Amino acid sequence: MSPLKRVAYFFGLPILLIALWWALSFGSTNFFVPKPVELAQTLWTTWIGPRFFDDVLPSLGRLAVGLIFAIGLGIILGLLIGSTRWLRNLLEPLLEFFRAIPPPVLVPLLMLLIGVNDGMKVAVIVSGAIWPVLLNTVEGVRAVDSVLNDSCRSYGIRGFARIRYFVLPAVTPQIMAGVRQSLSIGLILMVISEMFASSSGLGFTIVQFQRNFAIPEMWSGIVVLGLIGLGLALIFQFVERRVLHWYHGLKEITHDS
Amino acid sequence: MTASDTTVNQPVTTVPMLSVRGLQKIYKVPGGDVEAVRDLTFDLAEGELVCLVGPSGSGKTTLLKCISGLMEQTSGTVELAGSTVTGPPKSMAVVFQEYGRSLFPWMTVRANVELPLKNQKVPKAERAALVDAALKSVGLDHVPKSYPWQLSGGMQQRVAIARAVAYRPQVLLMDEPFAAVDAQTRADLEDLIRTIWKQLGVTILFVTHDIDESVYLGERVIVLSSSPTVVQEDLTIDLPAERDQLNTRALPRFMELRSHVYAEIQRAKAGPVTEQITAQRKPH
Amino acid sequence: MRKQRNAAAGPQAKALGLGISGIVLFFLIWEATPRLGLVSDRYLPPASEVLVRLGQYLTEAAFWRDVADTMTSWALGLLIATVAAIVVGLIIGSSRFLRRATHTTIEFLRPIPSVALIPLAVLIFGTSIESTLLLVVYASFWQVLLQLLYGIADVDAVANDTAKSYGLGRLARVRYVIWPTALPYLMTGLRLAAAVALILAITAELIIGTPGLGKQIALTQSGGAISSMYALVLATGMIGVLINLAARIVEKRVLSWHPSVRGEVVL
Asked: Does ipTM surpass 0.85 in this model?
C-alpha cells in the first residue's frame, strides 16, 4: 500500500466525520452539542492551566499508583497461587466470586473502610484492576509447557532462576493481556471514585461542569478522558510490542505453517 | 569394544557409568494399577553409545523419565557413576523429541545454550568458550543471535544438542530426538551425534523407535519388550567404528543385524516374552 | 477412555473440596475479624449479620424490584448493543475497504471509557432508564464489535475467494463463510459484554441514581445501613457469578457443534 493511501485510510474517516459535525452544527444553537471550533477552544482554555495541576495530574498520579500496585500484586500473587496446586484449588472459587463483583460497588464499601482520601481512591483502582492480571497469571502459570519444564528440571534450573528465566517470560503474554484489561478498568474506576466521592480530580470536575450546565466544558472533559484512554492504549501497545517481540515472531511463524 | 559374535552384557570390571537395576514403574489408576515397566536391568560402560528400541507402548518414555530423575520409579535403582539417582542428576543432560518446546522461545540461540552453565555459575569467559565450541561442533556458529523459532526443525534440535554438549554431562539421554525431523535431516543429525560422541567421549543412551537408526548409531542395541516392559535382548553391534550413511547401511552385516532387531521387535509386539514373566496377562 | 475419566474423579473431588473449604474459611475469617475487634464492626459487620440481612432481602419485594430494574437495563442494553454490533460488524467486516477505512476511528473511539458519558447521560436523560442504557449499550457494543471483527479477520481467505468465484454474493458469503467462522468469537464477545453490561448498569445506578441495585447500595451506605450495604454487595457478586456461568453455558451449547471451539482472543 502506497504511503499516500495509508495516510488516506488513517485520517479519512475521522476527517470526514469531523467535517460532517462541523457542517451540521454550523448554524445551530443546540444547547447540548458543541461546535468543533468551540470545543477545541474550550479544551484549550479549560484544561491548560491551574486545573491541569490541581485536578488532572493528581488523578493520573492516583491512576498510576493504583495500576502499579494492581499489576505488581497481581503478578506476584498470580505466580504464587498458580504454582501451588492446593492453594489454587483453595482460592479459585473465592477468586471467581470476587472478580464477578462489579468493581464500582466497592466504592461505597471502601469509602466506609478507609474514608474519603487518596488511599481510598487508589484502593478502588487496585480492587478492580488486580483481577485480570491475577487471574490471567494464575492461568498462565498453570499452562506452562511441560517439555520446557522438564528441560529446566533436567538442567537443574530451580527456584528463583526458574521463575526468572522460565516461568515469568512464559507467562508474560497472559500477563500483558490482563494488563490491557486492567488499564481500562483502572481508568474507569479512577473516574467513578472521583464522581462518587470526591471534591477534586478529573471525574469530580467533569461532574461539576455537568451540574452547572457548563456544556462545552463538560464535553471537553469527556474528550480529555478519551485522550487519556487513548494515551494509555498507545503506551501499552508500545511496551507490549517490545516485551513480547519474541511472542509475536513465534506466532507469525506458527500461524503461517 | 566390538566383539566378533553377538553376546549379552560385557563383563563389568569397573563401575559402570549408568546402571539400571530392576527398574519398575506402576501407574496408580483408579480401576486398577498399570504396570508400564516391569523389570529393566542393564548397564552402560563409560563412553558407550547404546540404543534402546522397542515397539510403541513399550514404556520408552517412562523409562527415560525414571532414568533421568524426572519421574520416580516404583522400585529398582538407577545409578550414575555409582551414586543413586533420586532427582535429575547434575552430570546428566536430556535431549527431548519436541525440540520446539524444549528451547526457550524468548532467548536467542546463544542464550539458550548458555543458560544451564549460567545457572551453575560458570565464570563468563569459560562459559563463552564452551558455548562457542558447542555451537561450532553442531554447525550453528553462524546463528547465535537468532531465535529458535526462526530456525528449521533440524537446526532447533542442533541447538538442543549444543546446549547438552556445552553442559559437559557424563551421560547424555536422548528421547527419540530425530523422530519429528525429516529423513535427510535425520541422517545428518545421526552422523552429528556420532561425531560429537567420539569427540567428547560422553556416554549416550539413545532411545528410538527407528530400527535402522539404532543399528547405525549404537555399539549396543537393547531391545525392549512391550508393556509391562523388560529387556528382551541386549545385542552388540559389531559394525566398524567408522560409519557413514551410504556404505555402512549397505553392509551385509548391517542387514543381518537390522533384520535380527526387526524380528525381535515383532516378537516383542506379540506379547510379554522372557522366562521370568509369569503367564498372567494384564489388561491394556 | 473410561480409565482416564475415572482417574480424574479423585483429584477433581479433592479440588472441589478444597474450593469449598476456601469459601468457608473466608467466611470464618470475615466473622472473626470484627468480633475480635481487628476492624470496627461499624465498618465491617460480622459475616453472620450480613448473611442474615441478605436472607431477609431475598424475601422482600423491594429487593426483587431493584434486581428486576438492574437486570432489565442489563438485558435491554445488551440486546441493543449486540444487534447493533452484529449489524455494524458484518457490514464493516464484509468489505476490505471498510475495514481499512474504519480502523483508526475504531482504535480511537474504543479506549474512551464509558464512564465519560455519565455527565452526558445525566444531561440528556436524567435519572431514567435511558441513562443506564446509554452507558450499557456503549460499553457492550465495543466488546461485541471488536471480537466480531477479530472473528471476521480470521475467515479463511481461500474459502472466501472460492465462494466469490462460485458467484456467491455478499449476503450469501456472509451467511455461509463469514458467519460460521466468526460465531465463536461472537460468543466470546457476548460473554465479555455480559459482564461489562452488568458493571455499567450498576455504575449508572450508583452514580446517576437510576433505580436498581446500584442505587440501593449508595443509599444504604449514605444512610448508615451497613449490613444491608454488604448484603447488597454480595448479591451483586452472586448475580455476576450467575451471569458468567450462564454465558459460559450458552457459549458451550451454541458452539457444541462447532468443529473448533476457539480460545478467547485476548484484546
From this structure: no
